[in-house]
C-alpha cells in the first residue's frame, strides 16, 4: 500500500496542512492506485451522508395525519382550548361522554378541532408551518389519558392549553417555564388524578416572540 | 379567569436573555443536529426534544457570558450527552439493518431504477455499518454534520488525532465492506 494512502481521508476532509495537501495532490497526479482509493473514499462518504439524510427523512412526521383546521380563528380568541390528538392518525375522535361506554364511541359526534390554533402549546408532531400564528404565552397544558376501555390502537389524548397568567398570580410562574398536566380520566368521564410537571418553553417557541 | 386581558405574546425579556445569537445558530444548526440525533437512534420526537433543550441551554450559556469559542462542539456535546441519557432507544436503529421506512422514503423520491440501485447501495452500507464500533459511528455522524476533527474530539471527549484516526478507520471499513 502506498505511503500516502493513510493520509487520504484527512486530505479529503481538509485536515492536513497546506504543504502536505499540495504534496498529496502532486502524488495523486502520479499514482493511479491512490486516485482510485480517493475516489472510493469520497463515494462512500457521500453515500453515508445520503443514508443519514434518508434516516432523517424517514423519521419525519407525516403532515397528512393532521386535519384542516375547523375552528381556527375562534380558538385563538378563547382562553381554554382543547386539542385532540390521535396517535398516528388524523385529528378526529369521539368525545368521551360522561357515561362513557364502548358504544359511546360510535354514537358520540366526532369532534374536530384545529391543531394549528393552539400549536404553540405543542412540543412535537405539529407541522412547522402551522406554528406561526399561534400565541406563545406561558401555559398550563393538560394531557388527559383516555379511559381504559379504549384499545391500545385507539390511544388518544386530550390537550387543554390555558395561559398560565389566567391561573397563577403575575410573576408566580418562572420565566420560560410551562406546566404540563397529566390528567387521568376514569370511565365515567371524571378526572381521577392531576399531575403538574414543569417544563422549559421549547426554544422554537421563544423565537416566535 | 381574570377579567384582565391575558398577555398572549410576552416580551423577549420574559425569557431572560436576548435570543439573537442563539436564534442565528438555531437556524444554522437545528437540522444537522436533529439529523445527528435521529441517526444516533433517537426517535424523531425524542430528537426534537433534545434539540429544543440543547438550544435553551445554549441561550442560557450565552446569556451567562459563557465562552463563545467552540460553540458548535459545545452544542453537539450537550445534545450528545442528553441523547446518551435516553439510552433506551439509543444505538438501536443504526445497528439494525436498513429500516423499511428508509427504503420507502427512497422509493418516494427516485425513479424505480434509481430507487433500486440506491436501495442496494444503502443495504450494503447498512451491513457495513454494523461492523463499526459505537465510537466510529459517532465520529462518522459528526463528520457528516460538517464538524472538524477538533470539534469531533471535543464532543466525544477524545483528542483531535484520535478523532482523525477513528474517522479514517471507520471510512476505510465502510469502503472495504460495502464496495460502493
What would you say this structure looks like, in words?
The complex is a heterodimer of chains A (209) and B (180). Chain A is α+β, with helices and mostly antiparallel strands and 209 residues long. Chain A has six helices and seven strands; from the N terminus they run ααααββαβββββα. A five-stranded mixed sheet of chain A has the order 1-5-4-6-7, with no helix packed on it. A two-stranded antiparallel sheet of chain A has the order 2-3. In chain A, α2 crosses α3. The longest helix of chain A is centred in the first third of the chain and has 28 residues. About 44% of the residues of chain A have low confidence. Chain B has 180 residues and is mainly alpha-helical. In chain B, α7 crosses α8. The N terminus of chain B is likely disordered. At the A-B interface, α3 and α6 of A face α1, α2, α4, α5 and α6 of B.
Give the helix/strand layout.
The complex is a heterodimer of chains A (209) and B (180).
Chain A: H1 8-12, H2 18-30, H3 32-59, H4 72-77, E1 81-86, E2 92-94, H5 104-107, E3 110-112, E4 139-145, E5 156-163, E6 177-185, E7 191-200, H6 203-207
Parallel strand pairs in A: 4-6
Antiparallel strand pairs in A: 1-5, 2-3, 4-5, 6-7
Helix pairs in contact in A: 2-3
Chain B: H1 20-40, H2 44-63, H3 71-85, H4 100-109, H5 112-129, H6 134-144, H7 149-156, H8 160-178
Helix pairs in contact in B: 1-2, 1-3, 2-3, 3-7, 4-5, 5-8, 6-7, 6-8, 7-8
Amino acid at each position: 500500500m502506498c505511503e500516502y494512502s493513510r493520509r487520504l481521508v484527512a486530505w479529503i476532509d481538509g485536515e492536513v496542512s497546506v504543504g502536505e495537501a499540495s504534496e498529496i495532490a502532486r502524488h495523486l497526479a502520479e499514482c493511479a492506485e491512490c486516485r482510485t482509493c480517493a475516489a472510493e473514499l469520497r463515494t462512500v462518504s457521500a453515500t453515508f451522508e445520503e443514508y443519514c439524510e434518508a434516516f432523517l427523512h424517514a423519521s419525519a412526521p407525516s403532515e397528512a395525519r393532521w386535519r384542516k383546521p375547523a375552528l381556527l380563528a375562534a380558538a385563538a380568541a378563547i382562553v381554554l382550548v382543547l386539542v385532540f390528538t390521535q396517535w398516528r392518525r388524523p385529528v378526529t375522535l369521539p368525545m368521551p361522554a360522561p357515561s362513557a361506554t364502548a358504544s359511546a364511541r360510535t354514537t358520540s359526534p366526532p369532534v374536530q378541532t384545529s391543531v394549528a390554533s393552539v400549536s404553540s402549546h405543542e412540543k412535537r408532531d405539529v407541522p412547522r408551518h402551522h406554528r406561526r400564528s399561534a400565541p406563545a404565552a406561558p401555559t398550563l397544558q393538560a394531557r388527559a389519558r383516555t379511559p381504559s376501555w379504549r384499545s391500545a390502537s385507539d390511544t388518544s389524548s386530550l390537550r387543554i392549553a390555558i395561559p398560565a397568567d389566567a391561573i397563577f398570580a403575575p410573576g408566580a410562574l418562572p420565566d420560560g417555564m410551562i406546566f404540563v398536566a397529566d390528567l387521568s380520566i376514569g370511565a365515567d368521564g371524571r378526572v381521577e388524578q392531576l399531575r403538574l410537571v414543569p417544563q422549559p418553553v421549547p426554544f422554537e417557541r421563544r423565537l416566535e416572540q | 379567569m381574570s377579567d384582565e386581558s391575558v398577555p398572549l405574546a410576552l416580551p423577549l425579556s420574559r425569557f431572560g436573555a436576548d435570543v439573537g445569537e442563539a436564534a442565528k445558530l438555531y437556524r444554522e444548526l437545528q437540522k444537522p443536529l436533529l439529523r445527528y440525533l435521529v441517526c444516533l437512534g433517537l426517535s424523531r420526537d425524542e430528537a426534537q426534544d433534545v434539540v429544543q433543550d440543547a438550544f435553551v441551554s445554549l441561550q442560557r450559556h450565552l446569556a451567562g457570558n459563557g465562552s463563545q469559542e467552540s460553540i458548535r462542539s459545545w452544542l453537539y456535546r450537550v445534545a450528545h450527552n442528553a441523547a446518551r441519557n435516553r439510552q433506551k432507544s439509543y444505538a438501536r436503529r443504526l445497528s439494525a439493518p436498513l429500516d423499511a421506512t428508509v427504503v420507502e422514503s427512497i422509493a418516494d423520491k427516485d425513479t424505480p431504477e434509481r430507487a433500486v440501485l440506491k436501495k442496494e447501495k444503502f443495504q450494503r452500507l447498512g451491513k457495513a455499518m454494523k461492523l463499526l464500533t459505537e465510537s466510529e459511528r459517532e465520529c462518522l455522524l459528526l463528520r457528516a454534520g460538517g464538524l472538524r476533527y477538533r470539534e469531533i474530539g471535543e464532543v466525544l471527549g477524545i483528542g483531535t488525532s484520535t478523532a482523525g484516526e477513528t474517522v479514517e478507520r471507520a471510512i476505510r471499513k465502510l469502503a472495504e465492506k460495502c464496495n460502493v
